[in-house]
Design brief:
This protein is mostly helical and about 500 residues long. The protein folds into three domains: about 250 residues, no CATH class; about 130 residues, no CATH class; about 90 residues. It is about 60% helix and about 0% strand. It starts with about 55 loop residues before the first helix and ends with a helix.
Length: about 500
């Protein structure tokens, strides 16, 4: 997709003080029709929406930020559905926010849509609108930033005269992506959107999202999050999303990467060969705690080549891929313990995206490649952390469970602001009370979501929390407590200032 800058017609750019006892006071949202679990959950892969979604997109685009929440609340009270609002939000973002010069920064307004949706799905019915309203407001700030930085970029019309034949679209798209050819990729993916199934298109995109380490994992995150959102809003909205995604995946620095040996591309080139050395029955291994511990040690100290070689050795010696994903997730959480900053955070969210792609892909080779790429990326994240300041000498072992004597998660989040390490240790103790019940995990998750709803003020608060709360239940039971405890460092503490948007949303519904 070539750069094209056009002007939009119109764009304009009280703090709540709840104490611990009032953290659950989101009752004002009950004035809206609650979002049912059925409405926010995928049915049969795709969901049919009204063909007239453009009015909702225009409403989001053209309403000034200071009035948007009130106008959307009025639409919902008049019968507009959750899926229509979610679709309008995603489509406004992909249409009006350019995923350049990096697939991040202002583009988080698009990346965070699925995270807000996941938070909504996991919430009580009467609370499910709050993450979506937060994302609507965040879109307006990102759109204003796009105006300042990129001259008000808007996705141009697709060149339909350049479309390949439908039966050649897969081959043409793959060749264009391999050659980093934006114009041919744009035309080919638009043709695919009109003639191919969403799942078969994403089988290719899983690989291209994991192909290179540019934008510290945001490419893989965009692939995973866009598919999950399309599963909710309907594949009829896929064309602009896929065009934006292909454009994002082709972001690079300097000359065409196909003609040079850039560091960001080396793991992929090596792993495309290495993947063939994995035994055919690699999925039949056994879960081994010791294998997870050994791989974590390699991820802490070895190179990306060392990590990939170790994964191959484990799979070929009969270790279950579950033990490998346990190591990836827990090691990313340990990185966050050591440096609770933006790089380590993206080690966690990128692992979440690749883990989702791995579970979703139906292609055996793609699944093996996703494991190898995740193995390569984690040491690269570790190296990137070294330029970001102090890295504390901590490990998962420092969270050794002590006997829990507190009253519940509220105490843990109260402690988090003043003594984050002790709060993490207490979280581990709380979660380790029993090896059979899931209740402590659910209680901690529910409190974490409340913290994000009431205190979160950044896209990463939603992206990160949705990622860890999703991945926790995909880990082996042995690793759930240390994983959640290590990641508590990036959840807002109960003593931090409330997000003013909560009070504004309250006022919008009372108007």
């Amino acid at each position: 997709m070539a750069d094209k800058h056009v002007r939009r017609n119109f764009l304009k750019a009280g703090t709540a003080t709840a104490a611990l006892a009032g953290l659950g006071d989101l009752s004002f949202l009950s004035q809206l029709s609650p979002v049912s679990a059925a409405e926010s959950t995928v049915k049969g892969g795709t969901v049919s929406l009204d063909s007239g979604i453009e009015p909702m997109v225009r409403l989001i685009e053209e309403t000034p930020r200071e009035r948007l929440l009130e106008e959307v609340a009025r639409k919902i009270q008049g019968g507009t559905s959750y899926r229509e609002v979610l679709a309008g939000l995603l489509l406004a973002g992909v249409k009006n926010i350019e995923p350049r010069p990096s697939v991040g920064f202002k583009f988080h307004a698009v990346l965070v849509v699925n995270s807000a949706h996941l938070a909504s799905q996991a919430s009580a019915a009467e609370h499910r609108w709050l993450p979506i309203f937060w994302a609507l407001d965040y879109y307006k700030s990102a759109a204003a930033r796009d105006v300042r930085e990129r001259g008000d970029w808007v996705m141009p019309a697709v060149a339909e005269s350049s479309f390949p034949k439908a039966h050649q679209a897969h081959e043409t798209f793959a060749a264009a992506m391999d050659n980093w050819d934006e114009e041919k990729a744009d035309a080919a993916v638009a043709q695919l959107a009109r003639t191919a199934g969403t799942n078969e298109i994403y089988e290719m995109l899983f690989r291209y999202g994991a192909r290179d380490f540019r934008s510290i994992g945001h490419k893989a995150i965009y692939v995973a999050n866009s598919l999950r959102t399309l599963h909710c809003i309907g594949s009829q909205h896929s064309e602009p999303v896929l065009r934006s995604l292909a454009y994002a995946l082709l972001m690079h620095e300097g000359d065409n990467p196909a003609g040079r040996d850039a560091e960001a591309d080396r793991p992929w080139r090596r792993n495309r060969e290495l993947v063939n050395s994995i035994r055919a029955d690699w999925r039949d291994g056994t879960v081994q705690e010791q294998a997870t511990l050994e791989l974590m040690q390699t991820l802490r100290t070895g190179s990306n080549d060392d990590a990939c070689d170790h994964v191959v050795q484990l799979l070929n010696s009969g270790t279950s891929p579950q033990s490998i994903w346990d190591a990836f997730c827990v090691c990313a959480g340990e990185f966050l313990m050591r440096q609770p900053g933006i790089v380590a955070l993206h080690a966690v969210t990128t692992t979440n995206a690749l883990f989702y792609a791995y579970r979703t892909s139906a292609n055996d080779e793609t699944r093996r490649l996703l494991m190898l790429q995740n193995a390569a990326f984690l040491p690269m994240f570790r190296e990137s952390m070294q330029s970001r300041g102090q890295i504390r000498d901590l490990s998962i072992d420092d969270l050794a469970a002590a006997e829990w004597s507190g009253n519940g998660p509220a105490e843990i989040f109260a402690e988090l602001q003043g003594n984050s390490l002790q709060a993490a240790r207490d979280a581990h103790g709380f979660l380790s009370q029993t090896s059979t019940s899931q209740q402590p995990i659910q209680e901690l998750m529910e409190r974490a979501r409340l913290m994000v709803f009431l205190k979160g003020n950044d896209a990463h608060d939603y992206k990160f929390s949705s990622a860890i709360l999703e991945d926790c239940l995909h880990l082996s039971p042995r690793w759930r407590a240390p994983f959640l405890a290590s990641n508590i460092f990036r959840i807002p503490a109960s003593g931090t200032r409330d997000n003013p948007l909560v009070e504004r949303t309250r006022a919008a519904f009372e108007a």
